[in-house]
Amino acid sequence: MAYKYCTATNWGKGFFTHEERRQFHLSGHPGEVWVVGDNLYGDQWITKVAGAIKSKDQAQAIVDGEIETAQAAHDALSAEEQNRQTRPVKYNLP
Amino acid sequence: MANYKEIKGFHVQSQSTDPAASSMAAGSWASGGTMNTARKINGGSAGSQTAALGFGGGGPPYIGNTESYDGSSWTEGSDLNNVRRSTAGMGTNTAALAAGGYGGSNSNNVETWNGSSWTETTEINTAREEAGGSGTQTAGLIFGGNPALAVTESWNGSAWTEVSDLNTGRNAVGGTGQTNTAAICATGQVPGSPATTTLTETWNGTSWTERNDTNTSRYYASSMSGSSTEALIAGGATPGSPTANTEWFDGTSWTEINNLGTARDQQGGLKVGGTSTAALSFGGAEPSLSNKTEEFDAVTTPGIIEGQVYYNSSSTNAFKVTQYDVPGGTWASGGALNSGRSQNSGFGTQTAAVSAGGYGASPPSPNYRTLVEEYNGSAWSEVTDIPTATGDMASGGPQTAGFIAGGERPGVNIAETFEYNGASWTEGGDLNTARRDLIGAGTQTAALAALGAIDPPFSAEAETYNGTAWSTVTEANTARRSAAGGGTSTSALAYGGYTGSYVKIAESWDGSAWSETGDLSGDIKATLGGGGPSNSDQLAFGGYGGPPGSARYATTEHFNGSSWTELSDLSGARSNNNSLPSASTTQQLFAGGNTPPASYVTTTEEWTAPLANKTITIS
After folding, report:
1. pTM: predicted TM-score of the whole model, two decimal places
2. Which contiguous run of DSSP H or E holds residue A18?
């Protein structure tokens, strides 16, 4: 499946609807990165949310940066807190 | 221009969404109002989709913020008196309970919410965070919690009482329920590696009972909604990575449905008033703190019907057809045979099957059996025996008009045929060549029997049956025993087997001649199960083989007319069990067999392929 990548701030109710979820692939990632199915409805949604188109590499870099920030926050926790929580790990966007 | 109805006489329906197996399968998550304070709320929640409450949280720092949701936006209310995260939530958004939590140490603090403020009340007996909660402000339940606790406590509005433990202690659980006498606890963190679990238990007011596992192992899936008989679990994490995966529990098993829009763990969910058809997931970690809310709604959709052709006018703008998806099939456990045995022969369908004869452990020592059992889709029951103890027969036909032919009695290959009418067995015409370990296909009045062992050598002979007598027809190309096969008397396939060594050979019968076709793709094996409607649609599973001939297999393969594709495995490797030669490849049965060191098992597994909507392509 082909995807497009964008950043867009989730404003809450109506940002994505049930109907839109049925019309195209949509998944949110750290840094307000959205992976959007590459079809007419996906394009319409990107326009609706004023999404800023990114390349896959650019989107991955944003996600990686967010996870690195979360990793740093985890590393700064007390030893007891670190034992109670899992250190975030990086992953690849689809 | 003529339209489709004028040409074919009926309309192709236009659907805005694909038909679905259930309203849950067609349900989806949509964005809801954004919380005022992002947080890992991790269970501190109550209420329903349009009247929810979220309280506490933190990463650290810990917070006591309380927010109320009206179905579109969140409004701040009074803070918890004791700032903490990971409380177990119960009740509604006007009458909630926050129990336990963590504010630098595990807490036993409990507070009640009256719609405007929190008041401290009786403490729980065991301090904990990351526990599950269910029930109301005056009839609640707290279960599990950090560190991997099994302790369950019941609340009657004034006191906490320890009741029966979870079977498996854990924390970071998914938990929900409408009362303190009916709850569900799913997934969580357990000691050891992997730290996540798929375990599911339900509470009946007295004890916890293990249920079928979730499909995805996870913890911190705290935005669970529903009850012990229908629940939704969403998000959570595999170690280090939040997931968007969502599953629905129908009271028996979990089914994957549409994912959250954003993968998150440690979110808030719903309790009293929340259902699996109208759920909520808010806050959490992405891994950064989240203020997002998502609302799940099931939808009323057209029922899914095999063969339905329609035009999808919204999602794909495509013509589609609803078909069984054999590659998407899986094996599930079925009812156990009453008597364990191998080399039993089967016919019928998955919901109306017969298992005849075979080789069992008693009495008084391992030997061939006369036993016959019928299966109704859930349980086997003993019916009229075959006249003489026999195993390794050919078989075919439906439950009430089946046949068995050939086989082995101690040291003797036989030629006899017996026909079953659903109540009794009648002797039919003998095979021209007595043999065992042969394949069968077709029906009581139009059957095929082929291959087998005749001591020595192996047989390539084939015979067809007209309901009265067997006639010799063209031989197969490769003589062998212990192959599997199925189909009809004019369109059958034989595959695998033993020629002195184990083989992958598949041969297709078209009613007049045998021709070699694509070999089994996976293991080289014999004594496997198999069946299907024709020589272009067969399912092969299990078996024994090699090289060097010392292994049993759990593998499943599907033949599409030219080649074999490996599909989902059986739950365990087995050989020498009965399958249904004439049944479909969308519903099969595998009963009994050998799984050394346990021989002659009672295990039954059911193969079921789901319906799926496929775009019609023109090649």
Report:
1. 0.67
2. helix A18-23
Cα four-point dihedral sign A37, A39, A45, A50: positive
Q: Which residues of A touch B288 (CB under 8 A)?
A: 30, 66, 69-70
**CATH 3.40.50.720: does it fit domain B28-297?**
no
Cα separations (Å) of A71 from A64, A68, B243, B288? 10, 5, 17, 10
Distance CA B394, CA B438 (A): 6
Q: Which amino acid belongs to residue B530?
A: G
Strands (E), B502-554: 506-509, 514-517, 524-526, 529-534, 537-541, 544-546, 551-552
User: What is the third-level CATH fold of B328-615?
Assistant: Neuraminidase (2.120.10)
Beta pairing partners, B297: B28, B278
User: Which residues between 143 and 172 in chain B have a beta carbon less than 8 angstroms from any beta carbon of chain A?
Assistant: 146
User: What contacts B111, CB < 8 A, 6 or more positions away?
Assistant: B80, B81, B82, B97, B98, B118, B119, B120, B121
Which of B190, B282, B286, B297 has the highest number of chain A CBs within 10 A, making it the mutation to test binding with A? B286
User: Distance from first CA to last CA of chain A, Å, rounded?
Assistant: 9
Q: Do A12 and B31 touch (CB under 8 A)?
A: yes
Query: Is B539 in contact with B564 (CB distance < 8 Å)?
Result: no
Q: CA of B292: which chain A residue's CA is closest?
A: A12
Decide: B89 and B134 in contact? Cβ < 8 Å. no
pLDDT of residue B239: 81
Question: pLDDT of B77-91, one tens digit each?
Answer: 999 999 999 999 999
Q: What's the rounded Cα separation, in Å, for the pair B528 and B578?
A: 9
Instruction: Say which of A28, A70, A77 has its CB closest to residue B261.
Output: A28
Of B27, B32, B258, nearest to A13 by CB-CB distance is B32
The strand pairing partners of B318, in sequence order, are: B312
- Token code pair at residue B427: 């002797």
Tokens of A3: 């995807």
CA distance A45 to A24: 9
Residue spans per domain, chain B? 28-297, 328-615
Q: Is B107 on the interface with A (CB under 8 A)?
A: no
Q: Amino acid identity, residue B147?
A: P
Cβ distance B212 to B254 under 8 Å? yes
Tell me the C-alpha distance between B96 and B54, whole Å: 10
Residue B459: C-alpha distances to residues A72, B51, B471, B497, B507 (Å): 71, 73, 15, 11, 14
CA distances from B511 to B396, B447, B450, B508, B581 (A): 16, 11, 12, 9, 17
Mean pLDDT, consecutive 10-residue stretches, chain B (619 aa), reads: 67 77 85 94 85 90 94 96 95 95 95 97 97 96 96 97 97 95 96 89 96 94 92 91 94 91 94 86 93 91 77 78 89 89 95 95 76 94 95 96 95 95 97 97 97 92 98 97 96 95 94 96 84 97 74 91 93 86 94 82 90 79
Contact B521/B551 with Cβ under 8 angstroms?
no
- Per DSSP, the residues of B332-377 read EE-PPPSS-EES-EEEEETTEEEEE--EES-SSSSEE---EEEE-S
